[in-house]
Amino acid sequence: MTTCYAALRNALLVVRGPTADPTATTHLDGHDLEALDFREGTVCCGTFDDGLHRSEDDGETWTRASGLPDSVTSVAAGGRPDEWWAGTEPSAVYRSDDDGRTWEERPGLTDLSSASSWSFPPRPHTHHVRWIEPDPNDPDHLYVSIEAGALVRTRDGGETWEDRVPSARRDNHSLTTHPDAPGRAWAAAGDGYAETTDGGETWVHPQDGLDHRYCWSVAVDAADPSLVLLSSARSARVAHNADRAESYLYRRRGDDAWERLDERGIPTGEGVLRAVLARGEEAGTFYALHNRGLYRTADGGDSWTRLDVSWADAFERQTPRGLALDES
């Protein structure tokens, strides 16, 4: 049985049960949600107004973790048992070694030479850690995206930091990795799409067929990491603003051009805010969350089915913030 943890801007939906007949409960109502992740019975959800909340009972009850500021903008399960990572605004990275209960900052991030240029356009006086992506083949190696200004790395678990490289995107919104693809990472950024095959030393930008290049979320297939799904829009304004919303899904296979996934059973285009994506454990299985609902594909994006859960009118104006799966 799959449980989906689906974070909208002001509500966390916990969707349980078979795809054909799920049940949904709502949690953390009214909080300003930013990010979430799941691992082995623990869910962590970062908020912009009340730090990080965690649950050990499949999302039934939540408690605030200690050692983090109010504005937690990213969260990721680490590569070691009980290890978690979190990012904040202003930009800082924290690590937990007790399954997310308590946290300590990993210093030195803002000592990097590029830090003076970091700035988040809606709040140009500050910036934040938008995404943390642990390397599944090396628990000490993490990609950390700063919104906006840099994609930085650590190779020693946050003891030291390596600054951005010239070919990396500057406004990375999400990244993904794959345990069967060592050295590879895929990035969805406001300034386009990028991928690396050498652990982030160099990046390439295959964009043939990608007509909308304000990219938000990226996922690769569980069985074939050369199959990539991407959500994107023309600009930030139409990606995030419900009154102007227009966004799309794209797919790429190997070295082929990007293909836009229109009329596949999932709404795209006018009225649709940018989706967040998550890969399932089975080949071809992905989930997508946006303001029109929660959707699933089992054939690599050829066709999508909406999960039959109650969808409040207010959800249609909320940007999705995160999506995590428990398929145990």
UniProtKB/TrEMBL annotation:
Region Disordered, annotated ranges: 157-185
UniProt superkingdom: Archaea
GO biological process: xyloglucan metabolic process
Compositional bias ranges of the Basic and acidic residues kind: 157-173
Name of protein: Glycosyl hydrolase
Organism: Halopelagius longus
UniProt lineage: Archaea, Methanobacteriati, Methanobacteriota, Stenosarchaea group, Halobacteria
